[in-house]
Design brief:
single chain; mainly alpha; 72% helix; globular
Length: 313
Amino acid sequence: LEQIITAPPIYAWYWQVLNWGILSWSLCLVCFGGSWRDSGLAFVLGLMGGVLSLAAGKFSGYTNLFEVSVSILTGLLGAALSQWGCFAAISLSATAVLLPGLVMTTGVIELSSRHMVSGTVRVFYALILAFIIAYGLLIGVQIYNKIAGNPLFDGALLDLTQCHPLTQWSWFGTFPIGIVNIAVLVNIHWRHWISVTLVAGICYGTFWLFRFHLGLEDLAPVVASFVLGLVANIWSKFTGQTAYMILLPGEMFLVPGSVGVRGFSSLLSKEGGQGLTLALQMITTCLSIMIGLFASSFMVYPRGKQNSALVTV
């Protein structure tokens, strides 16, 4: 385990920086309802986040300031660029790597598995991280307001309804790019790109069918996570590959990290009702993903198995 933790990354530093930008570009289009212009601006801010992540890896003293500094700079530059794009889509995409949805989902799964200490730590860490990102974005916008001399936002900062999304069919072209970027982010070898893209594509197709075509918004994450876990476990059973490696990129597309950030942003903007609603939505989505993954693991391994898709990171 120590050798795995201390092993150097598979991809060079310049690929990691570029990956931040491309991932922000793809998530802006697929997950946050951005336009082509929004995605271009998110790409630039994502590159900035990638450079700062390298600095955090080189200077240990900067590590504790990394998330808040990225959020403040993203809020500042995103506000300055908002006249050419949607601030919510740009800022959430640029900070997408930091979003705590996966940590929150993993914590809920661990709590349900009766791993109380690690689960509680992850859940509270996810909540604090969501608050830090929302607070940093708010501070960045306020700094820009002082510099510009006029208030830019009067309501909630991260209102995605003000964006102009592309047609849903265009998502299927940018989705595989985002999956490959996530695979690079979590250090999955390029030999597994095809398998993780196929598994994630099945999951996302299921999610799209239930949420946007059938209109079953509450049921969509349950069914999608069930299909994701089922395919990943079956793939692992027949190929010998680790199920969680195959499952992880697809799961990161389902997790509701941006919902928590938007909720805390609404609370900081004194829109308490909407903020509590979004925070509750984040928790319910995590529970939905947990139910789907538990059900899929039981279907493939009814007696339990150590290398199922429920292994946490």
